[in-house]
Amino acid sequence: MAQGTITINGSPFPFESGQTILQVAEDNDISIPTLCYLKGASPTGACRICVVEVKGYRTLVTSCSTPAANGMEVLTESPKVVASRRETLELLLASGNHNCSIGSGREGDWSDFQMQAAASDQFDELCPAWGDCRLQDLAYQYQVEGGKYPRTENRYPMEMINPLIVRDFSRCILCGRCVQACNEVQVNRAINFGYRGAEAKIVAGTDVALKDSKCVFCGECVQACPTGALTEKKARFSWRPWKTEKIRTTCPYCGVGCQLWLHVQDGRIVKVTGVEDGSPNKGRLCVKGRFGYDFIYSEERLKTPLIREGETFREASWDEALDLVAAKFKQIIEESGPDALAGVSCARSINEDSYQMQKLFRAVFKTNNIDHCART
Ligand code: SF4
Ligand code: SF4
Ligand code: SF4
């Protein structure tokens, strides 16, 4: 039920009890930029990118953590707001190794700068997040090129030792999204903020490598990270968003039916992410769904049916194999009755396939000897 009305950029909007300014804006297609805000987790107001101006307030407020109030008048892109965002972006770009073109200064007009930025993708040392970085996007949007403040020295070496995830602390802006993704969304509680002040760092356990911590390599933190601080090891540098096509599908590993985006480049999957607005997983994935896609390219994978003849197998067509299986089922039922048959549905089948299989056994074969393999 509407609790009152707030005005955003001159237009009135109803809001419900408990809604923040950001939520009311999003509900009404008004874009307020964010960096640390993670939908579904408690707002922290840490990055201060989402600040807005509220009439009568002495300072700007963070829209992600400020509740909407009746009669509030909000400006989301006033000169004061834009100046604050630009300053925040300058500080963030100076906080680490942001070596994309944003951080390199520019000459000429804005389009020259963008051309220079595009050309720079040829450099090997270019950040693996180039083209898929929220900080970079916002720097473009607010025309911030960095260089206003001296760059902070990198205190911590890159962590390459983990099997699936690379941690580059020099590109971490300490937004905390990974911590929220791990602790609040997946509830794995593997990482948290460690140390203080300039020494601050996201630590796993007692500041060990992810592989030596409680981390289960679900990759939720990687999906949540807005910069190049966390990247998938397998997709690092080989994946750029403009080179890939995104195809939505259902995870093949179990019956939950998580929704996936396959990032496909030249006919090969190079990365998998969760569909953020898709049920049942809302973007979340387990280690298998996110990282276990290589098996489809295995040379050892069976691609044609095999029929056993004595001690050996021979390749057969699908028609021949299915006809043989159907004939054997019929023969067993005729000779020994339907309860001589039993079926075990594969744990990797989707729910719909398992449903069809139990239908086949119960409705067609007339037996209840049907089960589901619990091993995933
Ligand atoms: S993390 Fe983002 S802003 Fe930093 S270098 Fe990489 S692309 Fe640029
Ligand atoms: S991979 Fe999963 S468990 Fe490991 S730190 Fe990231 S969110 Fe936590
Ligand atoms: S690793 Fe990424 S998500 Fe985590 S605090 Fe750093 S920038 Fe934010």
Summarize the structure.
The chain has 376 residues and is an alpha+beta fold. It has a 5-stranded mixed β-sheet, sandwiched between helices. A 3-stranded antiparallel β-sheet has the order 10-11-12. Strands 6-9 form a two-stranded antiparallel ribbon.
Question: Could you name the key traits of this structure?
Answer:
9 helices, alpha+beta, 376 residues, single chain, elongated, three-stranded antiparallel β-sheet, binds iron/sulfur cluster, five-stranded mixed β-sheet, Ubiquitin-like (UB roll)
Descriptive overview:
By secondary structure, the protein is of the alpha+beta class. 25% of the residues lie in helices and 19% in strands. The strands form 6 sheets. The protein has a 5-stranded mixed sheet with strand order 2-1-5-3-4, sandwiched between helices. Strands 10-11-12 form a 3-stranded antiparallel sheet. Strand 13 (306-309) and strand 14 form a beta hairpin. It is elongated. It binds iron/sulfur cluster (SF4) (3 copies).
Helical amount: 25-40%
The SS-based structural class is alpha+beta
Sheet-strand content, in percent, reads: 15-25%
CATH-defined topology of the domain at 2-77: Ubiquitin-like (UB roll)
Name the CATH architecture of the domain at 2-77. Roll
The CATH class of the domain at 2-77 is identified as: Alpha Beta
Task: Compute the number of helices.
Answer: 9
Silhouette: elongated
The first-to-last residue Cα distance is 44 Å
